[in-house]
Amino acid sequence: MQRIGIxxxxxxxxxxxxxxxxxxxxxxxxxxxxxxxxxxxxxxVESDFQRLDPARVARIHRRGGSILGxxxxxxxxxxxxxxxxxxAGLDGVIVVGGNGSLTQAAEMAPLMxxxxxxxxxxxxxxxxxxxxxxxxxxxxxEAVENACERLIDTAESHxxxxxxxxxxxxxxxxxxxxALAGGADVALLxxxxxxxxxxxxxxxxxxxxxxxxxxxxxxxxxxxxxxKPILDxxxxxTTGIARLGGIGxxxxxxxxxxxxxxxxxxxxxxxQRGGPPTPFDRVLGTQYGAxxxxxxxxxxSEVMTSYIxxxxxxxxxxxxxxxLRQVELDSSMMRAxxxxxxxxxx
Length: 346
Fold this sequence. Notes:
Number of helices: 12
Order of helices and strands: EHEHEHHEHEHEHEHEHHEHEEH
Largest sheet: 7 strands, mixed
Structural class: alpha/beta
CATH architecture of the largest domain: 3-Layer(aba) Sandwich
Distance between the termini: 54 Å
Shape: elongated
Number of domains: 2
CATH topology of the largest domain: Rossmann fold
Radius of gyration: 21 Å
CATH class of the largest domain: Alpha Beta
Helix content: 25-40%
Number of strands: 11
Strand content: 15-25%
């Protein structure tokens, strides 16, 4: 193992640079060259590389985003990716990404004439199967929690219903954790079809207890009972890829016709992606990066780093490829949320 490449695929997430830094330092310690592949899989196809060394990555773990760049629009072919690995003369590739990027890694691996592939789970949505933690999720939840605390202040002062729309795609982890951490009263998740009337009941019930505000955290993929996910039409048309967005304002319009309270919405959007990583995401990214390099040095391939039971281990890449992790409705987290009075519109 003389030359390893690393790419950060899909959307950005805080903690990516911690992975790049740790992988580069671990490789250097083993006398292996580390090559940064720019802009995700696009860099493999376009042969867009940069050399990474300890000096280049020394303090990047404190920064959000990725120094290598990300691309969640480019759609290439696994054979072209494998050919890019060959042209670059790589003995191994570390793919840091979410569902899509890890699925592409699993498809690319059997087509490679040389080299090995190790995946690292990254997504603020925490929807990658085969691991309990993904890079960027903790930082995203912190952003939601901070927003909730600020919005509660103004909601209490003006007797408002505030709706906070958060990311998560088809999984409700950000909404659930953000609601618990931020003290929300209602959480709408993709896993639980909601009824508007039950949301109204929650607002009215709070008012009967002289609680003059209601904070609702709505996942972008939340769906009304019998309805369909709400798409951001402009982004969907621009990218050609279905993009969720707009649940907050759609719900607000429904509520305005049913209650007298003023209803306001805030879409946190990409505020959840950026900013310095939390200590947890820095430490997790560091563990993942070091473990990925060690896996390649040990001759492993088609595996991914995974956080299980408080530690990092290797799991088959196939456990994540093409699969979706969602909130388990009988989990201790859900039981705690219901116990403290969070309503889910069901």
